[in-house]
Amino acid sequence: MEASCLELALEGERLCKVGDYRAGVSFFESAIQVGTEDLQILSAIYSQLGNAYFHLQDYTKALEFHRHDLTLTRTIGDQLGEAKASGNLGNTLKVLGRYDEAAACCQRHLDISRMLHDKVGQARALYNYGNVYHAKGKNICWSGIDPGDFPEEARIALKKATEYYEANLSIVKELGDRAAQGRTYGNLGNTQYLLGNFQNAVLAHEQRLLIAKEFGDRAAERRAYCNLGNAYIFLGQFEVAAEHYKRTLQLARQLRDRAVEAQACYSLGNTYTLLQDYERAIDYHLKHLIIAQDLKDRIGEGRACWSLGNAHTALGNHEQALQFAQRHLEISKEIGDRSGELTARMNMSDLQLVLGLKQNNTTNSNSNSADCTDDNNSSSPGTKLRSGRRHSMENMELMKLSRDKSPGPAREEDTSPKQAKTSPIAKTSSKLFFISRFKGKKQKANGTSPTKTSPTNSTSPRTPDLDPKHAPDTLGDEGFFDLLSRFQGNRMDDQRCSLEGGLSRTPTPSSPCETPPVASRKSISTSEGEASEQPGHFLDLLASSQGKRLNKQRASVGSLPGLRLDQSNSQAVLSQLIASADSKEPDDDFFDMLIKCQGSRLDDQRCPPPPPPTRGPTVPDEDFFSLILRSQAKRMDEQRVILPSDPSPTQLNPD
Asked: Phi first, then psi: what are they for 36, rounded to 5°?
């Protein structure tokens, strides 16, 4: 027995609830293929399928089905379903980076929820609204800038996010929803952190930690400890930060999350570096290095080598520091990290100066270059040539290839645009081609017969009778462009519609296709007479033509997948769709939302900012790392060795 659409949809919903979204999607797709006449069931399938694709990170398909859901709920007048569809659509648009459109959807969700006095819907809409502005603020400028130093546009977005989170908190506290309070406190703490309000961030994350402990949510507890550690770092309380990072490390080990465990070790190593406890810093950085190697995280491995080199330099272990700097350089070259490569080269140069290895390094490099030049003769063809002479000789061999010595098939390329463009003969022949066409046009206009033309002009661009010495004198560049503009002007005149068709009856002998047959002339004259006698006929024709164009742009009901209509109820459903569409007049809020969406189209045409640097799974957020970079740079400057200058080359001037 074949399963119905509802049975397939229920099975898909059950699979999605247990976390098997891919199997749930297959059942929902099967339900759509079966189809249903119940618009409520179809709307629920669209919503569930969009959410399933969202969890599978297929945001394009999620956007498609959430739009279907929104269209259907608006059609059948389901305001509660329209509010939920608007919220789902806003979340999907936020992930895709279309923040203005996402904000418009969240506003629609909030307006409908307030109109229906739905407190739960209002809380969700405010939470989603805050998430949109939080993501927008982070996306505007997130390239290693410290929290609190964002541009004004980012600060405005983050402040709006704070307002929406606080409004959400007031509602969820009224509803007594502790789980929702915990989520909002976590996001509010992150927003305050980005704004530079670190004390407020600590207060919010402490509330998040308290609620996570109430529910036994160890993952949320681990995130709260990590966020508290980051905030205390910027407050300058490094000891307190280290304690929170240790709790993060313990919970990560309990959860068996190796990547988060490595992040905690990395943060602890940097924190103990700030505390100048370099032995413990090396211990944690080595743990981070081991996990990064196990997870094949080359970015994290490079950061660990960089941190270990700095810690060994602070302890005076310059040989070991040089080894880690060399590994950092190798990894940076491998992953294409230009900044890391420059940092590693600078550290190696400083360490070589301290160890007195600069002279040895230069001699080794000279010997290596000599070996490379000797091995050039025996190198394989795939190796890169280092000798300038070999490279120039290859260019000379390429320049020896001429058209006369090329084989037969290569002659077909003589008529290609490249050779016609580079050859002076082709240039002058193309000019003569325009001259001949222009003369032909003038002769057609005067009614005279064309003069003799060489057949080579029409068959081949080559003109053997052309004297290249006189061509530049008889036809300059300015004269050629004047001639070309007049020729193009005549072509435009030929394409114009003549209003004096009945005045000149003399046929032109230029082309038999220019004069229409007698029958067609009769039909044209009669249609012109009817159009002149009946001016309304032209307006009706124009209206029908424009009506067809409008009909092509309408959204058809058949475009909704899974909607099955038979002859008995198709007319009723269509009349319901038309009535619901005609009864809804757009209000001012709709036009305001439309203006905002249209304004975002200009932003869509701007050049996007460069993407943020690639981060490894074992490396925490970049803002904390940038602080360590600057802090370590100052300590490195304090630890540099100033070599005594040699007074012999510089002699003091007695004046």
From this structure: -150, 155
